[in-house]
């Protein structure tokens, strides 16, 4: 399966790598692993601000996580030069800006996990963590990082 053909089928255009907002780099390769820094949710080019359980629904959070997955793929493309080099998506870690009583972080994170599965098929099946946190930089609703293995 050609990953770029699959992206076209899904009507997904990869964005350019975002310029880091602090003292870090967007990705680091170590051996056959590529580590992507956390990407925050954006809407119309600005931080997608909100808190799950307060002023955002699980479905809105899921859409934000899906949007982050697309940004992550853009960064992964920049890191590898070719998404077809991905042997496997190894791990996804998701931070969900949520109230103390919100317990659907896993469902929010499915927005990213499901898209990764649609794009990479079996190579997209990954380990995952989803945490609820009190706040995320710039008030974003979700932040996700990713680790991928290269062939």
Give a short synopsis of this structure.
The chain has 151 residues and is an alpha+beta fold. The protein is built from three helices and seven strands; from the N terminus they run H-E-E-E-E-H-E-H-E-E.
Structure, described:
- With 151 residues, this protein is an alpha+beta fold.
- The chain is built from 3 helices and 7 strands.
- The protein has helices at residues 3-9, 58-80, 105-120; strands spanning 27-30, 33-40, 42-43, 46-47, 86-97, 127-133, 142-150.
- Strands 1-2-7-5-6 form a 5-stranded mixed β-sheet, with helices on one face. It has a two-stranded antiparallel sheet with strand order 3-4.
- Helix 2 packs across helix 3.
- The longest helix has 23 residues, at 58-80.
- The radius of gyration is 15 Å and the shape is globular.
- The mean pLDDT is 97.
Quick tags:
single chain; two-stranded antiparallel ribbon; globular; 151 residues; alpha+beta; five-stranded mixed sheet
**SSE class:** alpha+beta
The coarse silhouette is globular
Largest sheet, order of strands side by side?
1-2-7-5-6
Count of helical regions: 3
Q: Helical content, roughly?
A: 25-40%
Q: In whole angstroms, how far apart are the ends?
A: 14 Å
**Could you give a short account of the major beta sheet?**
5 strands, mixed
Strand portion: 25-35%
Strand tally: 7
What's the overall average pLDDT, rounded? 97
Order of helices and strands: HEEEEHEHEE
Radius of gyration from the alpha-carbon trace, in angstroms? 15 Å
Query: What ranges have pLDDT less than 50 throughout 5 or more consecutive residues?
Result: none
